[in-house]
Every structure is written in structure tokens, then in C-alpha cells.
Design goal:
Elements: H1 11-14, H2 19-29, H3 53-58, H4 62-79, E1 94-96, E2 103-108, E3 121-127, E4 138-143, H5 153-162, E5 170-174, E6 183-190, H6 201-220, H7 224-238, H8 248-262, H9 266-279, H10 284-296, H11 300-313, H12 318-346
Antiparallel strand pairs: 1-2, 2-5, 3-4, 3-6, 5-6
Helix pairs in contact: 2-6, 6-7, 6-8, 7-8, 8-9, 8-10, 9-10, 10-11, 10-12, 11-12
Function: May be involved in response to X-ray. Regulates p21 protein stability by binding to Hsp90 and p21.
Pfam families: TPR_1, TPR_16
Organism: Trichechus manatus latirostris
Length: about 350
């Protein structure tokens, strides 16, 4: 049985989400479809497998610390001491996203303490997103947790920022490493939503199935980055359920590992495969993908072990055979280089 390494797990079950799930999840959340959104470009094939700068930011929280220092330093140089700064630019008005993906500078404070939640319909003024981001410009309505606007990297950042804002708040979104002026957001109003812990288990599972199906569609369209975001959101929903959790978690981690390999993130792929193999030690795709990831990290012995396990279960697996041959060749080159270095040292 040959196993293509790039196919998401369980495609037949998730490529087309059932309409009833969509209907139930949207009725329960009280959401509506978004309006005034500009049409998005069709997904295009990914030509480069390395992560883009935004993806690297999501994995590198230290980037925001540097940006914050630069922001505060610029303010000091322009206005003198922090105590002399105008109110909108006080350092206390900088909010760091916990995952390090952006810094929000509050220009005008909002009212009250409530913030948008899952299912909240937000009326937003959006200015300054880069051309081709797939996001609307100007006044628009966006529903948190629902809609194709969340598929792109910028959409995910926008959603995270809205979840931190109060009604009437105006803010600038600073992205570490992103050139150009900051994005400006104004949250005029929003409807009441619900936190994920307020959802019933059946609602969480239905939403997770939708995310998984959307992720599989994006993966097939050549967009592993968008697929990874969908799989990640589905996992965050399911992780709040009591252990051991639904079996979909295993397939989601396996699919996420496939995306991470294509995005040049072998260490994350190893971690995703570890979670699969904790529940299913004989999972072929997870063993294969972890072997590929270990080889990319230079851990040739671990890569060999995983690939041999695949061949024990499925001796005719061509993908594992070919990858194992590459690992053997890589090991011989590594040994030859080591021997040459020793000869120079002691010769």
C-alpha cells in the first residue's frame, strides 16, 4: 500500500462538511454572513515551501519585544520622556498579542470591558492592509469564527486584534518585520458572542469539522499555510473537551504535520507527529512524516528508525523506501565528512 506523504488524513470524511453542521453552528452562534467584503483571489499554488515572514513571526514571539523597544525608543526621541508623551502614545497603551504575532497601539480607548467573542458580528473600519491581502478596506462587517476572510495570514491577525478590542476603540496594528505604515482599525460596534467554553461539546465538534474540511480544501488547492491555520483552530476547539477527546484530534495533528513539512517547519512537524503517535503508535503517516522531519533536522538515526517502522507495517510503501534510501546516502556523506575531518586533525 503506497502512502502519498502530502495527502491530509481522512479526506473522504472531511472534504465536504455536512450542511446540517453548518446550519446548526451558525444558528447557535447567532451569526450572519459578512457584507461588503471584496471578492478574494482564487487560491494559487505555493511555489516556495519556506514560511513567509508573518508565519515566522507567529513562531517567534521575541520579534514583538524588539518592535516594542523600537516603538518606545522612537517615541522617546520624538517627544522626550515617557511622562511627556501625548496620551495616545503612552507606552502603557501598547498591547502585546500573547503569541507574539503583533503589537496593538491603542490610539483611542474604547468603552466598557466587553470584547467580541466567537460569533460576534463586528462593524469595523479597516485601513492600511497591503494590496492582495484578501481583506476588505473601509467599513465592513465581520463575524468572528466564520467566513473566508479568516483563511489568510492577515485575516487571522485581524481576528486576534478584534478579540482584544472594546467598543469604540481605535488602534494601530504593528507587525514585527512588516514594512510600511501600520494597519488602522476602528471597532464601532459588535453583537454579543460566546467564549469557546460556553459552547456545547457538539457545537465545538461541528465547528472543528468545518475547520478541518476547509483546511483539506486549502491543502488540495496548494495553500498549506491556510490549511495549517484551519487545522490549528480545529484543534484549539477540541482541546477544551474532556480527555481523551474525539478521534478527529489524531487526524488533525497528522494533517498539521504535513502542512508544517511543506512550510519548512520540521521541528513543529515532529511535535505534531508525536501527539499522533502517543495515541496511535502504528499510525503510518505520522511515522513517515516524523521520519522525514527528523531527516531534515539531521537526526538520521531517529529518521531511520521511523522509516523502518513504516516498512515493517507496509513493506511495499514506496515513499518510505525512497526516503530511507536518501537518509542512508546522507548518513554515508556525513560519515565521510567526519572521517576526512579526523584525518586532517590527526594526520
Amino acid at each position: 500500500m503506497e502512502m502519498p506523504p502530502g495527502n491530509p488524513e481522512g479526506e473522504k470524511d472531511t472534504s465536504q462538511p455536512q450542511e446540517q453542521w453548518k446550519k446548526n453552528s451558525r444558528e447557535n452562534l447567532g451569526s450572519t454572513t459578512q457584507i461588503r467584503q471584496q471578492p478574494r483571489d482564487p487560491p494559487t499554488e505555493i511555489l516556495e515551501l519556506g514560511p513567509d515572514p508573518i508565519s515566522q513571526i507567529l513562531e517567534n514571539p521575541q520579534g514583538t519585544e524588539k518592535l516594542a523597544a523600537e516603538l518606545e525608543g522612537d517615541s522617546d526621541r520624538s517627544h522626550g520622556s515617557a511622562s511627556e508623551l501625548p496620551e495616545p502614545f503612552q507606552a502603557s497603551n501598547l498591547w502585546h498579542c500573547p503569541d507574539g504575532s503583533f503589537i496593538k497601539k491603542i490610539v483611542i480607548s474604547g468603552q466598557g470591558l466587553d470584547k467580541p467573542k466567537l460569533g460576534s458580528r463586528c462593524r469595523v473600519l479597516v485601513l492600511g492592509f497591503p494590496f492582495g491581502s484578501g481583506l476588505p478596506e473601509g467599513w465592513t462587517e465581520l463575524t468572528l469564527g466564520i467566513g473566508p476572510w479568516r483563511e489568510e495570514t492577515w485575516g487571522e491577525l485581524l481576528e486576534k486584534c478584534l478579540e482584544s478590542m472594546c467598543q469604540g476603540e481605535e488602534a494601530e496594528l504593528q507587525i514585527p518585520g512588516h514594512p510600511g505604515p501600520p494597519v488602522r482599525l476602528t471597532l464601532a460596534s459588535f453583537t454579543q458572542g460566546r467564549d469557546s467554553w460556553e459552547l456545547e461539546a457538539s457545537e465545538k465538534e461541528a465547528l472543528a469539522r468545518e475547520e478541518r474540511a476547509q483546511g483539506t480544501e486549502l491543502f488540495r488547492a496548494g495553500n498549506p499555510e491556510g490549511a495549517a491555520r484551519c487545522y490549528g483552530r480545529a484543534l484549539r476547539l477540541l482541546l477544551t473537551l474532556p480527555p481523551p477527546g474525539p478521534p478527529e484530534r489524531t487526524a488533525l495533528h497528522a494533517n498539521l504535520a504535513a502542512c508544517q513539512l511543506l512550510l519548512g517547519q520540521p521541528q513543529l512537524a515532529v511535535q505534531s507527529c508525536d501527539r499522533v503517535l502517543e495515541r496511535d503508535p502504528g499510525h503510518l503517516k505520522a511515522l513517515y512524516r516524523r521520519g522525514v522531519a527528523q531527516a531534515a533536522l539531521g537526526n538520521l538515526e531517529k529518521a531511520t528508525d521511523d522509516l523502518k517502522k513504516v516498512l515493517v507495517i507496509d513493506p511495499k510503501n514506496r515513499a518510505a523506501q525512497e526516503e530511507l534510501e536518501k537518509v542512508v546516502i546522507q548518513g554515508k556523506k556525513q560519515d565521510a565528512g567526519l572521517a576526512q575531518g579526523l584525518r586532517k586533525m590527526f594526520g
